[in-house]
Write a structure and sequence with these properties.
The chain is of the alpha+beta class. It is built from 3 helices and 14 strands. The chain has one domain: outer membrane lipoprotein receptor (LolB), chain A, CATH 2.50.20. Strands 1, 2, 3, 4, 5, 6, 7, 8, 9, 10, 11, 12, 13 and 14 form a 14-stranded antiparallel β-sheet that branches. Helix 1 packs across helix 3. The protein is globular and about 55 Å long.
Amino acid sequence: MFYKRKYLFLCTCLAFNLLFFAAKGQDINTIVNKLSEGLGNKQSLAEARFLMFSCISEAHEQIKGEHLFLYDWKSKNCRFDGNTGDGKSLTVLFNAANQSGEVFIDQEKTRSPEILKLVREMFSLDSYFLFTPILIANRSVHPVAQDSEIIDSRRYYVLRVNSMANNGNYSELFIDSQSGNISYWKTFDKSTNKTYEFITSKIKDVGGGLTLATRFTDKKNGKIIEYPVVSALLNIEPEKFKTP
């Protein structure tokens, strides 16, 4: 009788664990589907092969002011247009998946590995807040579901997602359970110290039904990351990634 009861107890525990993990898996799917709904329909996510965006951020000290990126999701080719510190036009053509790239100052090709490295780092930082929701919705990034939270009487799903740089840093995205919009975005370092607590705003249809937040304001120090121009494009002239 003792062994029978023990066997039944173990079976009950196993069944509970299976149900628990199935529920957690369902939670992830539910949250990601709600995020996808907030971003627009699946067609808009699939068709937006090119994304053009400009950024104004206080994080960049060497290349200041508004600058523009054009990105091809398929080939990973990228174009940067901005200005040097002394006001000269700067164009950098590179591939985000490898180390190749070319630098042009005032339309003249220039060998400058320092500028190439700097622009690649800028792209990684500037694209993070736009690309991460899209990558999650497309199942290219795999976040972890956290406990939902109630803020100002509204329920928010919470996703934890690692930094693209795989350096131990991570973010928590707070997704409105009704609209699917990301309302809050908290960032943490590898020691779990909170580095920023952004409130999102200026949610826009950037083309084809794709909807993204374009302004992030930190509650802690008022720092702002803004994307004045964001546009999802179906077609781009190939020369954009080859010539300045």
